[in-house]
Amino acid sequence: METETKSKSLFEKFSNKATAFTGSSPAFIIAFLTVVIWAVTGPLFHYSETWQLVINTGTTIITFLMVFLIQKAQNKDGKAIQLKLNELLAANERASNRMVDIEDLTEAELDQLHKFYVTLSSLAKQETDIHCSHSIDAATEINEIKVEHSRHHKDKSHHGNTSGK
What we know:
78% helix, elongated
């Protein structure tokens, strides 16, 4: 089990470094120079099938590997974004906790939720005075609610700790 964790950790480190490198300017310059060198050597190799096969094989292998590397990076980024959004939903007392992990819903269930938010958006658009929904007073009120909520949780945690630590 420990070697499995180490190998995952090694793969994780490798894929993170590879993803960072392949998205960098030096990686692009290396790829560009490779194509230029290949093109310039065309006359030297009389534009042979082998000369063409070298670039075709190389780009195919790199593309094949990059697909998996990109997918891994997207999966990790997607999971991180979902966790951040879940944290925001959990922290906001006015947000529905039903929205946490909705990515597991069916397409039909997501469509139903989408209709709800389209309706909500339409109702908001009917409000012609933006100052009603986005006024300084509304911002102050929301901030006060959050501050009070934060104080309540701090007081609760201090009073609940009877161990003296």
